[in-house]
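Protein modeling request. Please complete all fields; requests missing the sequence field cannot be processed.
Requester role: graduate student
Desired output: 3D structure, token encoding
Chains: 1
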Amino acid sequence: VNQRAGRAGRTGPGHAYRLFSAAAFGNEFPKFSSPEIERTPIASVTLSMKKMAINNVANFPFPTPPDSVAIRESIRTLVNIGACEKVAPNRISSLGSTMALFPVS
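Delivered output (105 residues):
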């Protein structure tokens, strides 16, 4: 309940006005939101890591690791767009090195 109250920069005491009932708030909303790395595509993160010579992204010690399926999908996406080599998907291509300089989504 307290996590979602008091956003928008307020630092002092105040009131939180919600557009739904307390029952809906207690039953429909999770206590904490899931980490962003679990909710968003990680192709950009994977490409950046490969640019930094972290080739085995699946074994990287993330504080909250992304799903292994998401990692495989990101590598497949990078191969399909030419950012990683088809014969060795763990290696970044020259195009991928250039792409890593820009935001990819």
